[in-house]
């Protein structure tokens, strides 16, 4: 009698596809959080495998801070169009304009302001579930997540109120006003993601590969310098993301390891020009990928505090 055993990547893939199908079966109005980053690229491939030849039965949602990499926005829009998917985009600027988000004077990062923008979009479209690409190996707070993460009527997360998931059985019940966040890649690592991208020959934004970019040094890391603001009659969309006169500027060969917006994404010096190069680099790394995220450097509890308020 012969036996068939899945290899590591195939097991992770089947587990994630099972979760995607559970979402489609259990929820009335689910959505996929798609930023164009490497993790959400894998989510889209899993959705294709879960539902083809039918169309992906859920729209995409992205919350913009207003400080995004232009390369990432182009990639996001193009992939949604290629997959014939409905893409909903909501912005922090819209949340500020309607009064649901209030900037903190002197605070440059807009990550916290994504929370009311996301919760507003969930309410606007009546989403009862949002699928995200977060992984447990990324950060301490995300290691506390289950696959199915319940959010209360205020969109908030209580790490002590997580439901057991014994024998891969998931409790998808939500009451009125509640919603679920689902993370099919929970058991994946950064290495798994890149090996899956190689295996499936998936396209990723070119900023993941080494390229020449003007950067400036802030808080021990290199941040990208946005393109020049050429229209003085309009507000600078990258205000706060530009170097101060006292900050060192330099043109370097760099790439991104994990993508947020241009204020939060630290660039790493790297010669990696292919997926194989990136895999070798990740294998040798001694710092987690979010070690280059300025928004996580504020405090050890930064991510958990944001998640409790409704963050991704």
Describe the structure.
Helix 3 links the parallel strand 2 and strand 3. The N and C termini lie far apart (46 Å). The chain has helices at 8-26, 38-51, 70-82, 92-97, 114-125, 190-200, 275-284, 302-309, and strands at 30-33, 60-64, 87-91, 129-131, 148-151, 179-182, 211-218, 221-224, 249-256, 267-269. With 312 residues, the chain is an alpha/beta fold.
What can be said about this structure in brief?
By secondary structure, this protein is an alpha/beta fold.
Features:
globular; four-stranded antiparallel β-sheet; 2 domains; alpha/beta; 312 residues
Helix and strand composition category: alpha/beta
Domain module tally: 2
How much helix, percentage-wise, in residues? 25-40%
Radius of gyration: 19 Å
Major sheet characteristics: 6 strands, mixed
User: Total number of β-strand segments?
Assistant: 10
CATH architecture of the largest domain: 3-Layer(aba) Sandwich
- Helix and strand sequence: HEHEHEHHEEEHEEEEHH
- Widest sheet: strand ordering: 3-2-1-4-6-5
- The chain-level mean pLDDT equals 88
Instruction: Name the CATH class of the largest domain.
Output: Alpha Beta
Unreliable runs, pLDDT <50, ≥5 residues? none
